[in-house]
Amino acid sequence: MRDVAIIGVGMTKFGELWEQSIRDLFAEAAIKAMDDAGVKKIDSFYVGAMSSGLYTYQEHLSSLMADYMGQIGVPGLHVESACASGGSAVRSAFIEVASGMSDIVLAGGVEKMWDVEDGTIVLATASDQEYEAYNGVTFPGLYAMMARVYMEKYGLTREELAQVPIKNHKHSVNNPNAQYPFEISLNDVLRSSMVADPLRLMDCSPITDGAAALILCPLDRAKEFTDKPVRIRGVGAATGPIALHDHKDLTRLEAVKLAADRAYKMAGLSPADISFVEVHDCFSIAEIIVAEELGFFEYGTAGKAIAEGQGTYGGKIVINPSGGLKAKGHPVGATGAAQVIEAYYQLSGKAGARQVPDAKFGMTQNMGGSGGSCIVHILEAL
Known about the structure:
Distance between the termini: 19 Å
CATH topology of the largest domain: Peroxisomal Thiolase, Chain A, domain 1
Shape: globular
Structural class: alpha/beta
Helix content: 25-40%
Number of strands: 12
Strand content: 15-25%
Mean pLDDT: 98
CATH architecture of the largest domain: 3-Layer(aba) Sandwich
Oligomer: single chain
Largest sheet: 10 strands, mixed
């Protein structure tokens, strides 16, 4: 396989974007990425979107987006893997470039989540319809069960759990594309509305509109387009049980570990080599469990470590320098691509006030459902 590099990126602001349609959002991000890379024509593209048909009643995204980003005739595919759709689109583009089939490939994701009356029904399609959604359990309920078991098993306190969103909101202040770029306090978390005990509103990622896109090419051509390409050094993917009751341990996410192990093996690296990581913090407990599955902390210790400052600047590893899903926002189809863009900014020295010092390797972890699918990328500064 050929080595693959990122040569350009683009994204919209994340938030409640009432004046833009799903086509507007993706076209904006895609054109920004092409302009950033200095390319007028692409060979192929992938669009990650979880549920555009239910959110906006629009499918056939390959045709729609080719038209609106000025690339009619170019082959394109819509990629879906629940909330891991964006990461899956990046992985698909990576494989196409690495295989030698194409040289200039766009990968991105989009979701327009505010254009539907009941988004809970849409999000529930990523769970087991017959055993979970039909019986009324939602994703906050599923992750609340995980949180309760983790707290009982490892002694994590409610105050320690609250430090995850507090940290991520603090990171988001320096992200101009973040949906909620402001700090929150312990009081803000503990007094926010109860959603599913023990998870409160401030433990939950928001509903978000947004899009993100990046341009990939062979590493040996990257300097034709940019002085600061970023190499995709390792990629890992895995699936897990779709229903939470089929997990062997509710404090574990087996697909995350499998995907991470595969990415580490491909990259020839270990957790100790990674300077920062963008994780899928759809709920506070998810960040804690994922940080352990990725190998950054021993099982049962990540919650307390993050509460003690080991997940921020000056700690063991910077987790979610972008603000994460909680504060940056979570347009489900775009999230995985936006995570890779954050890694690109960090490794090319373009992250501004949120720059992680001396970052050499970064990781992204994008997940669907309650761990039913997972994509991990490891990126390298050149």
